[in-house]
Amino acid sequence: MSLVLTNRFKIKDSHKLKVYEKTGGYASIDKLFAMKPGDVIEEVKLSGVRGRGGAGFPAGLKWSFIPKDSDKPKYLAVNADESEPGTFKDRYLMEEDPHQLIEGIIICSYAIDCHTAYIYIRGEFDLAYRRLEEAIAEAYQKGYLGKNIFGKGYDLEVYVHRGAGAYICGEETALLESLEGKRGNPRIKPPFPAVVGLFNCPTVINNVETISTLPFILNNGHEAYRNWGTEKSPGTKLFSVSGHIKNPGCYEVPLGYPLKDLLEKECGGIAGTGRLKAVIPGGSSVPVLTAEEAMKVNLDYESIAAAGSMLGSGGVIVIDDSIDMLWALRNLAKFYSHESCGQCTPCREGTGWTYQILDRIYREGGTQEDLNLLNEIADNMVGKTICVLADALAMPVQSYLKKFPEDFRRHIS
Ligand code: SF4
């Protein structure tokens, strides 16, 4: 099935400019420069495409917050940090189709009157980084980037910045701090980056997947994009499926697609014991679903929210019934405790205490009081910090305790 983002993935040398051009690449640019920037924003708004980094905020609406009367430079920062455990779709987009991302960057930059764009890429992504740099060099050579691009009198410079391995630098304001050469500490919002962003200038921050969607929308129009998905969650989405699954990998499906079909039809079914116990549907920071919930839910923002979880980054982690959920949660707690930047007490202390309590219960056993305390700590973390890293552990803690009580009771009996 021909979709939006992955159509070139199976073509040999899909990352090279000549293949990209031969398969319709950069075709949206003539149309782009024939439009007014405001009309481009309107088209993206009508498409309803929502940010694919995790929050799901409508992209066109976000762009419209960039002040039109500001004489400061405007920036685009593409979030390619992809540090959420279980998520590996942006990496594929950059490795297999980097020109699609560059074309999307040109579209977004033109729409928001930006002449300098940055791609903040996770440091460990070596192949993706090299392919991006090669693609950017090809684009400069062909006059698609730099001065007077496509001969249209518009200048655009694109830089790739490599991260140094901090999870928190995937948080949009920490990413900006890091780009400015500082420690990656999230900023208090408001002000929001659209008004005070990179170097204190108006900035749009969008994820790789969101920006890579733009060439399709410009080429085919918002109605064609809306042929996929649901009314409130239009289009397609990439899902990274890992864990106890027969064919793990990166899959593009229309939003609203049943999770059951993704696991059974696209991915070949459950591996390991063959018996599904749980699914984390949107990267490790979202509440877990039981097997029963997972088999009933559709993959769109609203359906997953109604089931008590989040679509997040689309990192689907499949768990069979050999797994002790206390052990799994302990691993998560160790990760988030290590990655907390330490600015907020509920996060710095809460993630550390949670890990220590879970680790002690796991190694030595515990009491019902320990489980009550874990819930209480989580209550004091959610919504009480500068960024959502604290929630990213607290919400899983509460959902694991609620949905898999027997796995915790076993350790305290
Ligand atoms: Fe740092 Fe955690 Fe506070 Fe986020 S919630 S700013 S990671 S301490």
Quickly list its features:
single chain, 413 residues, alpha/beta, Rossmann fold, Ubiquitin-like (UB roll), de novo design (two linked rop proteins), 3 domains, 5-stranded mixed beta sheet, 4-stranded parallel beta sheet, 11 strands, 14% strand, binds iron/sulfur cluster
What does this structure look like?
With 413 residues, the chain is of the alpha/beta class. The protein folds into 3 domains: 17-225, NADH-ubiquinone oxidoreductase 51kDa subunit (Rossmann fold, 3-Layer(aba) Sandwich), CATH 3.40.50.11540; 236-320, Roll (Ubiquitin-like (UB roll)); 325-409, NADH-ubiquinone oxidoreductase 51kDa subunit, iron-sulphur binding domain (de novo design (two linked rop proteins)). Helices cover 44% and strands 14% of the residues. Strands 6-5-11-8-9 form a 5-stranded mixed sheet. Helix 2 runs parallel beside helix 6, helix 3 (37-47) crosses helix 6 and helix 14 packs antiparallel against helix 17. The longest helix has 20 residues, at 345-364. The model has no long low-confidence stretch (mean pLDDT 96). Bound molecules: iron/sulfur cluster (SF4). Iron/sulfur cluster binds at residues 168, 186, 340-344, 347-348, 385-387, 389-390.
